Amino acid sequence: MNKDYQTYPIVSFGFLIDASIPVVGYMEEVTDAVCLSHSHPRAQLIYATNGVMKVVAEHQIWVVNPLQGLWLPGGVEHQVFFQKNVKMYSVFIDPSVTSNLPTTSFAFDISTFLKQLLFKIIAFKDIANLHAPQKRVIQVFLDELSLITASSVFLPTSNHPKLRKVLALLMTDLTNKYTLDYYAASSSVSSRTLSRLFVKELGMNYSDWCIRLKLIEAIKRLGEKQSVKEIALDLGYENTSAFIYMFKKNLGKTPSNYISDHQNIEVV
After folding, report:
1. Positive/negative CA dihedral, 105, 143, 134, 113
2. Model-level pTM?
3. How far, in Å, CA of 142 to CA of 149, rounded?
4. Rounded distance, CA 27 to CA 105, Å?
C-alpha cells in the first residue's frame, strides 16, 4: 500500500440491517486515503463527482470517476483507494430490497437520471421517517439499479506469483512496448507458460490485457479532464490518431464522444 495513503474508516451504514430503512446514503470529500479490505451485508453504489477511486474487488480492479459508477453486492470483499481529492457519493441498500439487483461487482456508465436520484436520496434528512414522495424516489432508484449493465472496462488481476510480478511491472510502466518474451525472461518462465497464465488466470491474452490497462488509465484521465493529446502521449502512443483508433475500436466511440455522453451534472 502506498505509504502516503491515510486509512479511511469503514462506514457503519453498510452494516445496518433494517428493512424499514431500505436505502441510506452519504457524501464525503476524501484525500489520499485507503479504505482497507472489508465487506458488509448491504449492497453499495459508489460514485465520485470529482477525483478518482480505485476499487479492488473479486480479483478485479475498477476505476470509479465522474464517467462511471461502481456496483458492489452485499458480502463482496473490496478495498477502495481515494486518489488525490475525491468527492464521493455512496448509497447502501438493505438486503430486503436487492432481489432484483445485480449479483456481481462491476463498473457501469452512470446516467444523469441515476445521478440525480442518488443526490436526492443522500439529501434526505430523516431516513427513518420517509414521506411518500421520498419512498417513491427510492423505488425508482431501485428500478434504475436493476437495469444497470457492466462496462467492459475492468482489469482482472491474479494472485499467481509469477503473473502477479509481471502485472505489477506493467502497471508501473504504462508506456511500455516490451513483448511477452521480455516479461517471460524477467520472470524466469517460458513465453508459452506466461501466455497460458494470462489466458487461464485473466481470461485474456497479453496484448488484450495491456490494452485494457491503457483503456482504464485513459478513462481515469478523461474523468480528470486531461486532454486527449496528453493522454495519448503519456500512454506511449506516437500520435493522437493511434490512441483515438484504439479507444474507438474497443469502446465504440472516440474519447471526445465518450466524454460528451457522460457529462457530469452535480447536485447544487
Report:
1. positive
2. 0.75
3. 14
4. 21
CATH architecture, domain defined by 159-261: Orthogonal Bundle (1.10)
171-192: pLDDT as tens digits? 888 888 889 999 999 889 999 9
Evaluate whether 59 touches 159 at the Cβ level (below 8 Å): yes
Separation of alpha carbons 133 and 55, rounded Å: 33
Residue 60 and residue 156 in contact, taking contact as beta carbons nearer than 8 Å: yes
What single letter denotes the amino acid at residue 211?
A: I
Q: What is the DSSP string of 77-106?
A: -EEEEEEEEEEEEEEEE-GGG-TTS-SS-E
The phi, psi pair for 10, rounded to 5°, reads -70, 130
Q: Is 263 helix (H, G, I), strand (E, B) or coil?
A: coil
CATH 3.40.50.920 fits 6-145, yes or no: no
Domain spans in the chain, listed from the N-terminal domain onward: 6-145, 159-261
> Helix 112-123 vs helix 132-145: angle between axes, to the nearest 10 degrees?
140
**Could you report the per-residue pLDDT of 255-267, keeping only the tens digit for each?**
988 877 655 444 4
